[in-house]
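Troubleshooting log. The previous run stalled partway through. Resubmitting the same two chains, unchanged.
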Amino acid sequence: MNRTGLPSVRRANPDDARAIAQLLYDFNHEFDEPTPRVETLEQRVVHPLRGGDTVVLLIGAGPDGLAALRFRDAIWSCGLECYLAELYVIPARRRNGLGRALMEAALHQARNRGADTMEIGVDEPDDVARHLYENLGFSNRSGGGEGPLMYLYELDLRN
Amino acid sequence: MNRTGLPSVRRANPDDARAIAQLLYDFNHEFDEPTPRVETLEQRVVHPLRGGDTVVLLIGAGPDGLAALRFRDAIWSCGLECYLAELYVIPARRRNGLGRALMEAALHQARNRGADTMEIGVDEPDDVARHLYENLGFSNRSGGGEGPLMYLYELDLRN
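Second attempt completed without errors. Output:
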């Protein structure tokens, strides 16, 4: 616990692979996404945890939630781009500020590493997440909130 | 020219840095975005062209357009993620299929490198680009077009 009464956020290392795999499995399962088994995910998780471009943040003793950040060089400027790939808190620990604590740690981590921007793809009905991101200053309008709506388009190349 | 009557698409190399910088400058200028000088952009462009995670495709003799692709390892699967960072055709050459030719080459490039997905951030009023992406199978709804709208959220961390 820190002085806010919330569990501290810590950066995951390869020893956390199993716990991360379990959270990811639960995440996919909750939202009816197809998911590999926990053992398969555990093997996959080790690689990004060892690489330099991915940071996973964990919160709580379970752990009870995670944020996954990807970093890369910006192509036309000198800084880094940061992408929030995942944000998840287990159902039993929701509405307790854990998501916000993870996001604040994620922003701190991104700024410390020299990221100029953070981007997130969010589904329209995901009101809780959208409210959190907007509360932290994110906008789905370009130009820092003054411009038009920004959509995320995707194509599955395996089809 | 290839058999479609369109100029061929080719992959840029560091010798194209000046031409790419000019296209990027024109792009920013046209859309009233702040932009560094062409000389500054030229210096910055060389680095991503040498790195392994960025591919710039060029079309036309000018060249008259570009597509910039970023690649990275997916974190929870074995493939790559591809992000279309830029797509630009100079005003004088629009409505001639150059954007589509660039996109088809981009999809070919992404599949060849083993990307599982391609993502694009698009402003809502950008009808021409959205129509092109949708025509190629992209959707701004998750689940391959069946699910909810996907927004792109962004925060400038330098403020």
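Takeaways: The helical segments of chain B are 17-30, 38-50, 98-112, 127-135. Chain B touches chain A through 58 residues (CB under 8 Å).
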